[in-house]
Amino acid sequence: MENDRKLIQFHFITNAEVSTHYHQNPEVFYVLTGELKVQIDETTFLMKQGDIILINANKRHTMNGNEELLGARFEIDFHLLAEYMESMQLLFWCNSVADKNAAYADLREVFDHILSRYFEKDEKSALDLQALYFQAAHILTSNFLVKADDTRLNMDDSQDRQRVRRIQNYIQANYQSQISLNNLSDQLYLSNAYLSKYVKKHLGLTFMEYLNNVRLFHAVDELLYTKKNMTHIALDNGFPTSAAFTKAFRDIYGEAPSEYRRKMREQQEPENPEHGLSEEESGRIKKYLIFKEQHNEPVVKNQKVCTVDVQQTGKLLTDCHKAICVGDAYTVLQSNVQSQLRDLQKAADIKYARMWNIFSREECYNEKKGCNFRKIDQILDFLLENHMKPYLELGHKEVLLNYSAEKFLKENEEIENYEVQVYEYIFREFCTHLVNRYGIDEIETWYFEYYNFSNTGATESTGMTEEEGLYYQYFATIYRILKGISPAIKVGGAGFILGYGTLGCRSILPIWKKKNLMPDFLSVYSYQYVAIDDNDKRYGRKSIDIDYMRNQTEILREVIKETGFQVPELHISEWNFTISNRNVLNDSCNQGAYVLKNCIDMNGEVDLMAYWHALDSYSDYYDADNVLNGDSGMISRDGIRKPSFYAYVFMNRLLPNVIKKDENSIITTNGRDRYVIACHNFKKLSAQYVFSEEEKITVETIDNYMENDEPLKLQFRLENVKDGDYLVKIHMVNKENGSVQDIWKRLQYSKNLARDEMQYLEKSAIPRMEMKNVHVEGGVLELENVLMAQEIRLLDIQYRYSLK
Q: Is residue 168 scored above 60 in pLDDT?
């Protein structure tokens, strides 16, 4: 193989053209001005200024640009990238027309730098250019890559994942030999018939199709980058004859390998992408680059200045973040859970507690004796006595201990759902009981949700897209009974998963509308995972989009608007960056910064968001033998507050009127010379995190999964404040102050701590507080803060009156 291959090749697009073609290499299209219509398979996307689309290898596509089109095409060497990534099955989802991700801005910045370097002729520019190519590749693989052979696909269990990996490894190691299904079945001690069906199910291809794909992958590499003849290429890559190679090649590429080699060599781009550009076209490109340079605001790295006029207040601060998920309703009867919920409500003013499995067969209903709501009354009474409203999820959820999105341990047997008629009886009895015990006025302030659990046919694959799907029968029962009591009672669903089920709403929402079952709120779940559909297969991956929740919510709102669906409220009824109960990042300062960032970002964007989940006791199990176990609760099982707890406390201390919010802070006032600012230095997770197993991240290596650990200088300039003296109280949580995980580190992560040692942890895990006096003349108050990576801070600024 030749050594002068480049990871990325580049050329300009300067005129309108129509073509239908495909490439062995992925292509990235970037529109500078004008429009470019791109058709990939059966779907068409209209690209406008700033849009980026990556077309995967061997995807047939059509391009059609208008006369004003000015763009760029970046061709990635698939084989070279596969060597770097140590995987030959690479799939990207990178399409700014259909997707939102903060990483698109990073890509645009790098692409613009690449364009600029092409017009510079010195040697340094050539080196810079290569560095920029690798930077672009890093952004693409970190944020938009799905490794289709990765172990984190949706397999049934770990045994399937291991077996698929063994199949792939065997074929990779032996593709140059004359192997057969018999050879593989002998290796795995399986019958030919069973193995044949297994390969088809889990790889989407027959054994021979998959084997030929592997052989062709390597053969095409030699076809393009060596001078070997067809017979040598065929034999060196496991094909018995050149005729077999040609047939397999034609089945995939639609032409003979020799013809493909000739055409690809003719289409090779010249070294200088300016070649063939007219003087007018070069002028247009240079004019665009000058315009971009002049209109891009200068960015001062790791320093931000926030200037506000305190007289210009914006919207009111909402209570949308003041909701939490408790879990199985009957855990609320435990004394430690009640104590911790009181603690959380008092400190963070929690308004709603979301819980489920209230109609337990063990606790609520017996076929012979009927319904007994005594324990449910105790649960609801506790919430109301402690100033929390019930948010009742009315379905059945398995209690799962999630190690990752794909690996989980069942803590109980699968819950059997009631038949529709039985459920209707129980629910009608329950609602009658609620009205008589609490009154209509009270239950009108609650929320009743029915989520799309798969056992009732709620997912796309099991019937929610069908008008007669079981989901609608259960939802209609709930809806009509509650609305029959009072039209003001709030009923909603269906727990769509952002990044997975959003697009499915296009077909599901009209069914609700047609059935005249218009929910009072639409509920969705937000975990940082996304799904990519390709050739009727679905792949999942973690997302490190720093603005994931905000971006995915915007996509959902666009879908809702497209369908003409009218819904009064939008709830994120479960949210976290992970679904794992054993991810040590949950216990860290990273989680505190993540929680504060999203509470700030989403304030005013949704009506309610319930954090998943409140307490570590939700997933306490035999493996929870440490002080901290990577659970996402805000309070540990021993009652110790985590950084995420203090993020909620900081949000609760904000004042009613929002002056300004940006990506790192929110500034509020009471209109009476007091100002409270919450701010953070949240760092996105790195590419290493994307392709790591969550439960295997250790507290000792946690810093390796951060994009960077640089501090951030935040300068706040408040204008038009009253002259005089101010007291500034600063509360901070960082690795040196208030983080239980980092305090535990100083105790060498010891297990089985003594009682006094646990008390020390609990008393030490509180924010640090500093105070300083600031004198203001001229109506301007300036504060400078340097935040450590993943630090959260609250600034309470109070005018000091002097009555003389």
A: yes
